[in-house]
C-alpha cells in the first residue's frame, strides 16, 4: 500500500472525501513523520494539535454527511514568516524569539477556513534574506538530497523558503506556504525537486506576513506537483481590504482550468538569460524544456529583455531599502526580544537589542538600505534603481507583444553545499539572477523540476507569465511536468 505521506494535496483531499482513509490517519502519519525528522531542522515549531483538530473537524463533517471544505483535513507546513495566532512566529530571527502573534495572517486564515490543518512552522532564512537558509538564527535547514557521488556533504535546500522546500521534498508535509521576494519560492523548489509558484504581486494578502520588502513580497504555494500548487494557491489567494496592495479581482478556479495542451501559445526564450559561465547542464536542461513545450504544441521564439543585467543591482538596492525601513520597528519595545544592559538609556537599549537580535545578513541589508535612502545618496541609488525597475517591467511588456509566456532555468546551478557560498554575499546574490526580474515586475512565475544533474541533484525550469495569468503559467508548468516525468526523490537518511 502507498504510504499516506507519499500522497499529495489532491490525493489526500480526494481520499478523505471518498472515505478511503480518515483525516485522522493522515494527520497521524504526517505528524509522526515530522517528529522523526528533527535532523533536517525544517520545523521550528511543531503543532500536531492544530493538524489533529482540523482532521477531527473533517472526519466529523464527513460522518454527518456535510459537504467538505476544499482542503478539509489536509495538513500543511507554514513558513515562519506568517503570523499564526498564539503560535510563535520568528521569521528565523532571534529578535522575534518568543513572539506569539495575537492575530492570524490573512493567508493562513484562508487555509484554516478551507479546512486545512497546520503541522508546524517552517524554518527559513532570517527575515527571508538569503538563498541557502544559512542566515536562520536557529540553524540551517539541511536538504534531504545528497549528491550521488557518495560524498555526504550537507546541501542547502535553497532559500529563503528552505524549511518549506525540504519538508515537502522529504514528505514531512504534502505542501507548504512560501514567500518570494526575489526568488524564495522558486529557487528552493528548484533545489529540492518540487514545484513552487509565486503568483502576481497582490494575489495573496501580505497582511500578517512579516515584512521584508513590501513592494516585492508575495506569498505562494510549494508542493510536489503543479496540480497541488494550483489547489493550494487557489485557497491562499483573494482580495483582502487589510492589504492596500491586494488585487481586487476574482480568483479563478485554477485547478479546473489546468490543461497541458499549449497549442496556440507562443513561448519566449529571453536571450539575455544565456549567461556567461552558465553550467552546460543548465543550458542542456533549458533546451530540453524548449523541446518539451514545443512537443506540447507551443511555438517557441527568442525574445529580448535588454535590461536583465541591471535587475540584480536594482533589486539589491530596492529590497534592502525597504527592509531597512520595515525592520525599524524592531526596537525592543514592541515585539520579541529586548536587551537592556545595566544602566542603559533608550538609545542604548535599541542598539543592544538590534545588535544581538539581528544576524549579519540582516544587519548588512539594514546598513545598505539606510545608506541608499540617505540624503545625498537617495537619488544616485534609490531613485535610479526605481527607474531601472520601470525599465525592467517595460522589457516584459514589450516581450508580451510577441509571446504569452517565458521559459528559463530557475537557478544558475543545482543545490550547493552548506558553507560553500556563505562567505561571499555576491556569489550568494547571483543565485537570484533568473528569478529577480519577474519579481521586480510583479509577474507570476513558477519552478517545476526538469531533471537531475550529473550528481543526481534536481534542476528546475521556470515559467514566467503576464500579470494575472497564473493559469497560463500553471498550464505550461503542467506540460513540462508531464514530459519531464520527474520521479526522483531523496532517500531517507535523517
Ligand atoms: N535570495 C533573495 C534575497 O536574499 C530573495 C529572497 C526572497 O525572495 N525572500 O533577497
UniProtKB/TrEMBL annotation:
GO biological processes: translation
InterPro entries, A to Z: Amidase, Amidase_CS, Amidase_dom, AS_sf, GatA
Pfam family, one: Amidase
Active site (record annotation): 79, 160, 184
Keyword annotations of the record: ATP-binding, Ligase, Nucleotide-binding, Protein biosynthesis
Oligomer and partners: Heterotrimer of A, B and C subunits.
Stated name of the protein: Glutamyl-tRNA(Gln) amidotransferase subunit A
Organism: Stakelama marina
Organism ancestry: Bacteria, Pseudomonadati, Pseudomonadota, Alphaproteobacteria, Sphingomonadales
Amino acid at each position: 500500500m502507498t504510504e499516506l505521506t507519499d500522497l499529495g494535496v489532491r490525493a489526500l483531499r480526494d481520499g478523505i472525501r471518498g472515505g478511503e482513509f480518515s483525516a485522522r490517519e493522515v494527520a497521524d502519519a504526517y505528524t509522526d513523520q515530522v517528529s522523526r525528522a528533527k535532523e533536517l531542522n525544517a520545523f521550528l515549531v511543531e503543532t500536531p494539535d492544530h493538524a489533529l483538530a482540523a482532521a477531527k473537524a473533517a472526519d466529523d463533517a464527513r460522518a454527518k454527511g456535510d459537504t467538505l471544505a476544499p482542503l478539509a483535513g489536509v495538513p500543511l507546513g507554514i513558513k515562519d514568516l506568517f503570523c499564526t495566532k498564539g503560535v510563535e512566529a520568528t521569521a528565523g530571527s532571534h529578535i522575534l524569539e518568543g513572539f506569539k502573534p495575537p492575530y492570524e495572517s490573512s493567508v493562513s486564515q484562508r487555509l484554516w477556513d478551507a479546512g486545512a490543518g497546520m503541522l508546524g512552522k517552517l524554518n527559513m532564512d532570517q527575515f527571508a534574506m538569503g538563498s541557502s537558509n544559512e542566515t536562520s538564527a536557529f540553524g540551517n535547514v539541511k536538504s534531504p538530497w545528497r549528491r550521488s557521488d557518495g560524498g555526504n556533504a550537507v546541501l542547502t535546500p535553497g532559500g529563503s523558503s528552505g524549511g518549506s522546500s525540504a519538508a515537502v521534498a522529504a514528505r514531512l508535509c504534502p505542501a507548504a506556504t512560501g514567500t518570494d521576494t526575489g526568488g524564495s519560492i522558486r529557487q528552493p523548489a528548484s533545489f529540492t525537486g518540487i514545484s513552487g509558484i509565486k503568483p502576481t504581486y497582490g494575489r495573496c494578502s501580505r497582511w500578517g506576513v512579516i515584512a521584508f520588502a513590501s513592494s516585492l513580497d508575495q506569498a505562494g504555494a510549494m508542493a510536489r506537483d503543479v496540480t497541488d500548487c494550483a489547489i493550494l494557491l487557489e485557497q491562499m489567494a483573494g482580495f483582502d481590504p487589510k492589504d492596500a496592495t491586494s488585487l481586487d479581482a476574482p480568483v479563478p478556479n485554477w485547478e479546473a482550468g489546468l490543461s497541458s495542451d499549449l497549442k496556440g501559445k507562443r513561448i519566449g526564450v529571453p536571450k539575455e538569460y544565456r549567461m556567461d559561465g552558465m553550467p552546460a547542464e543548465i543550458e542542456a536542461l533549458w533546451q530540453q524544456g524548449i523541446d518539451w513545450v514545443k512537443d506540447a504544441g507551443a511555438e517557441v521564439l527568442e525574445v529580448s529583455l535588454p535590461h536583465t543585467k541591471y535587475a540584480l543591482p536594482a533589486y539589491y538596492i530596492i529590497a534592502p531599502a525597504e527592509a531597512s525601513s520595515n525592520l525599524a520597528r524592531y526596537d525592543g519595545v514592541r515585539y520579541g526580544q529586548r536587551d537592556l544592559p545595566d544602566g542603559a538609556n533608550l538609545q542604548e537599549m535599541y542598539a543592544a537589542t538590534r545588535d544581538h537580535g539581528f544576524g549579519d545578513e540582516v544587519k548588512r541589508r539594514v546598513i545598505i538600505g539606510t545608506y541608499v535612502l540617505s540624503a545625498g545618496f537617495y537619488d544616485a541609488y534609490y531613485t535610479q534603481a526605481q527607474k531601472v525597475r520601470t525599465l525592467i517591467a517595460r522589457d516584459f511588456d514589450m516581450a508580451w507583444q510577441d509571446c504569452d509566456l517565458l521559459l528559463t532555468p530557475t537557478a544558475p546551478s543545482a543545490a550547493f553545499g552548506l558553507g560553500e557560498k556563505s562567505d561571499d554575499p555576491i556569489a550568494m546574490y547571483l543565485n537570484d539572477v533568473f528569478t529577480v526580474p519577474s519579481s521586480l515586475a510583479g509577474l507570476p512565475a513558477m519552478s517545476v523540476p526538469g531533471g537531475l544533474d550529473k550528481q543526481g541533484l534536481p534542476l528546475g525550469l521556470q515559467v514566467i507569465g503576464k500579470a494575472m495569468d497564473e493559469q497560463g503559467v500553471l498550464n505550461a508548468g503542467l506540460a513540462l511536468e508531464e514530459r519531464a516525468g520527474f520521479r526522483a526523490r531523496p532517500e531517507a537518511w535523517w
